[in-house]
Amino acid sequence: EEVEQRYRDRNAESWALLERASAVMPGGNTRSSLWSDPFPLYFVSGEGCRLKDADGHSYVDLLGEFTAGIFGHSSAVLKDAVSAAHANGINLSSHNTYEVRLAELLTARFPSMDLLRFCNSGTEANLMAVALAKIATSRERVVVFEKGYHGGLLTFGAASAKVNAPHKFEILPYDDVDAARALFAAKGAEIACVLVEPMQGAGGCRVGSRAFLAALRDLTAESGAVLIFDEVQTARMGEGGLQKRLGIIPDLTTIGKFFGGGLGFGCFGGRRGLMERLDPRRPDAISHAGTFNNNTLTMAAGIAAAEHYLTAEKLDALFDRGEALRSRLEALFADRKAPYTVTGLGSIMNIHGAAADHGDSARLLKLAHFALAERGYYFASRGLIALSLAVGDTEIDGFLNAMAAFLDESAAVFSSVDRSA
Ligand code: PLP
């Protein structure tokens, strides 16, 4: 409570903005995932890896727009690309040269993508991929995983499914090969597709084992179901996404976030035989339309992003930087015997409170989130860190020092935490 009061006093402008917003949006919110208790911060500007909030505080941005902001803020390269596209006229009512170039760049990098289609968000990409799989297989059942997140309309809570989309879902525990085998043994012939994140992002950065993902590949291949990798987050793990790193090639892949160069973007692509169902020249073509699917601003930003930032060298270096940060955090928590853990892969990771009681774990995380914000380091209140290319060694050392100072200061609090689970 004392910490919450400190937070309110420090962030009065953010609180005032939330009050204004609450008059016109439910809970003052238009993105449920941004809600945090007691209230979210409002940022007014960003440059490189730095953010400024409405009360004038400055932060190192360790959240990077939930992985979408991989470039750092206010990139001149992206600004020039968008400005040039704008100067050439937007809303052209036709196909355009940008979409051809971006499609060439993306199909060249993802092993699973012979053909692709653009849309406006990762959510939409997943909805279209599932629809395509159902039509192509003439089957109904869609396999997803507990704590999976495939967008605002495809969210799967732990025990009880929190589902907003009209599909016949089978919700399995994640990373459980036996459960997947059992379902396919019982209902394999009815399964249209398996939709899976190779690492669960919003689910807490839980990394799927290679054995699990390979089993899904085998089970879907044997039963004639479509394997869909949701690489909306994990596509940053290397030039060809996590699929290339793992050497497991799905039938369809969905991407989004950073491949739109900072603008709203989604894309699904895969095997020629499947994707050709969308060819308008076919008598049985599946329609997939969208006014902004090929909007020139996003297409141009996406090309600049792919060519200048999302190169094999830069993505590999970012992966390594993330691995190093995660192991240094692990070592720090172990050294201080602090009740925290960290999970993840490459540049995406999640800090968790590690108490026996779920409520205590949540309070520990909240404490760390506030304390690091006070020290000028911003990550998601749910513990997510997604490094951008703009975060350097200085910021990472500074963050670890700030974390160490917080852990030392809180040693007395931690000593009373029950960790016996
Ligand atoms: N899939 C995954 C794995 C995601 O993390 C997200 C967004 O966080 C989505 C899909 C949805 O993408 P969008 O927010 O662009 O709809």
SSE diagram, text form:
Blueprint: H1 2-10, H2 12-22, E1 43-47, E2 50-53, E3 58-61, H3 76-87, H4 97-109, E4 115-119, H5 122-137, E5 141-145, E6 168-172, H6 177-187, E7 191-196, E8 199-200, E9 206-207, H7 210-223, E10 226-230, H8 241-246, E11 252-256, E12 266-270, H9 272-275, H10 296-309, H11 312-335, E13 340-345, E14 348-353, H12 358-374, E15 377-378, E16 384-386, H13 393-409, H14 411-415
Parallel strand pairs: 3-15, 5-6, 5-7, 7-10, 10-11
Antiparallel strand pairs: 1-2, 2-3, 4-12, 8-9, 11-12, 13-14, 14-16
Helix pairs in contact: 3-10, 4-10, 6-7, 11-13
The structure holds pyridoxal-5'-phosphate.
Listed once per kind, the bound small molecules are: pyridoxal-5'-phosphate
Strand order of the largest sheet: 4-12-11-10-7-5-6
CATH class type of the largest domain: Alpha Beta
Q: What is the averaged pLDDT score?
A: 96
Gap between N and C termini: 26 Å
What is the subunit organization of this protein?
single chain
Number of domains: 2
- Name of the CATH homologous superfamily of the largest domain: Type I PLP-dependent aspartate aminotransferase-like (Major domain)
In terms of structural class, how would the helical and strand content be classed? alpha/beta
* Biggest sheet descriptor: 7 strands, mixed
Relative helix content: 40-55%
The tally of helices reads 14
CATH architecture of the largest domain: 3-Layer(aba) Sandwich
Stated plainly, the CATH topology of the largest domain is called Aspartate Aminotransferase, domain 2
Q: Can you walk through the features of this model?
A:
The structure is a single chain. This protein is an alpha/beta fold. Helix content is 41%, strand content 17%. It contains 14 helices and 16 strands. The protein has helices at 2-10, 12-22, 76-87, 97-109, 122-137, 177-187, 210-223, 241-246, 272-275, 296-309, 312-335, 358-374, 393-409, 411-415, and strands spanning 43-47, 50-53, 58-61, 115-119, 141-145, 168-172, 191-196, 199-200, 206-207, 226-230, 252-256, 266-270, 340-345, 348-353, 377-378, 384-386. The strands form four sheets. It has a seven-stranded mixed β-sheet, with helices on both faces. The protein has a four-stranded mixed β-sheet with strand order 1-2-3-15. A three-stranded antiparallel β-sheet has the order 13-14-16. Strand 1 (43-47) and strand 2 (50-53) form a beta hairpin. Helix 3 (76-87) runs antiparallel to helix 10 (296-309) and helix 4 packs parallel to helix 10 (296-309). The radius of gyration is 22 Å and the shape is globular.
